[in-house]
Amino acid sequence: MSRLADFFRINAVSYKEIPYAENITDALEAAKAIGLLPSQMIKSLVVGDESHHFVMCLVPVDKRLDLEKLGLVTKTKMTMASPVDVEGITGYKVGTVCPFLLKNSLPIYMDKSLLQFSEVGISTGETGKEIVVAPKELQRVTNATLMQLV
């Protein structure tokens, strides 16, 4: 977490790190464990097109990414990246993916429904740890494009 803490300090991001039991592997259970609604918890999804151009989408864990809506913006048909591609692109294993300190830079899209909350939870890149941050701060530090993704 020290690299991430340094990243947040350098970027002047106020956040809280909240640990939870490492045996919790379901995002809905993690939300409950840290006291957030499922719609406040974010999953970081990597999707790509036939040419292997990838993007990351930040969406609530209780919603499904609408690939057709995303395709209208990217102007191409998008599909979910394989676990091998996800780890190779981000440096994180599926289930711990976060939009910070990525192995490779990606365009990031964030569902605008997340802005209704004063705080949201997102993975730190490690099992058993979430960070809670203001969604506007998350958008700023990731340079995410806001759009309706669900």
What is the distance, rounded to the nearest whole angstrom, between the alpha carbons of the first and last residues? Answer: 30 Å
As a whole number of angstroms, the C-alpha radius of gyration is: 14 Å
Assembly state here?
single chain
Shape: globular
At the fourth CATH level, what is the homologous superfamily? YbaK/aminoacyl-tRNA synthetase-associated domain
The computed structural class is: alpha/beta
Counting structural domains, the number is 1
Give an overview in words.
This protein is an alpha/beta fold and 150 residues long. The chain has one domain (2-147): YbaK/aminoacyl-tRNA synthetase-associated domain (YbaK protein, Alpha-Beta Complex). It is built from five helices and eight strands. The chain has helices spanning 2-10, 27-34, 67-74, 83-90, 135-142; strands at 15-19, 42-48, 54-60, 79-80, 108-111, 120-123, 129-133, 145-147. The strands form two sheets. A five-stranded mixed beta sheet has the order 4-2-3-5-8, with no helix packed on it. Strand 2 (42-48) and strand 3 form a beta hairpin.
